[in-house]
Hints:
There is one protein chain. The protein has one domain. Helix content is 57%, strand content 2%. The relative contact order is 0.18. The protein is globular, with a radius of gyration of 18 Å. The N and C termini lie far apart (47 Å). The protein is an all-alpha fold. Strands 1-2 form a two-stranded antiparallel sheet. It is built from 15 helices and two strands.
Amino acid sequence: MTTPKKKPSIPKVDFSIPPGAPALYGVDSLHWHVFKNPVSSFIGGISAVLLELAEERVRTGVWEHSIFPTDPIARLLRTGLAAFVSVYAPVAVAEKLIGGVVSMHSRVRGHTPKGTPYWANDPELLDWVQCTVSFGFMEAYSAFARPLTDSQRDRFYAESPASARLFGAHGAPRSLAEQRDKFAAMEPHLEAHPIVFEFLEIMKRTPAVPLPFRPLQSMMLRAGIQMLPPWLVERLQLSGPEWHLKAWERRFLMWLGALFERVPLPGSPPVRASQRMGLPGNYLYGSRPVDSVPGARALHER
Length: 302
């Protein structure tokens, strides 16, 4: 039986208060850098969703219990807010919002069209979703904003339990090697499905980015596809020319992503969170390498 879909409200979060309140991730974390970039975040979010929809149980749970097919804007806003809250909001705010998500997921269960049972709080599925989010956002950041080394990738995964544990994803990858192992373990379960194409068609026509960037939305959508492992692009039947990102488009998105590494968006969660911590709003922006932030080396060595 499909759970009725209720249109949820979008919580209001002020990332600038209370002054000095720490987040789940510190200001010296790679997460604060990676999630600040709107270009790579959109691209990485597409990659993550495609990885999730390729898995039968996750796909059925999302499509039968989510408002995305009927109200994608509200669903995208809530998903984006959850990501920002997990990284930048005070701990108490993040714990409350994530607790609400876990409680909601506890009621999401059923059987796929093939008869496979699923439960949204299944540890295996939670670990996979967390893996897809980390992979998508981090790899898109490395490709379109600022290149990361494998050592930095390890650091990013090592940071991730700060929020993953609250979602119940205790087995989510904590290193690049564990991420690759997770992909290998899930590979037999990933498959093409009409819902994948339905998602992409919805994202083509839904105004999911600010008006000035609307002409680039299709380009970023195709960039998200190209971030997937080549074998999965083939399996999902997304290797056709209509889904291919041209070389000049990749270069343009890399230029745009690099631009937003230097230019903060006034009033955005990363800017307000930096101000909450007594730092200038442009603290995360500029030409400074991500490993030069105070305390980064100590965090990486823990």
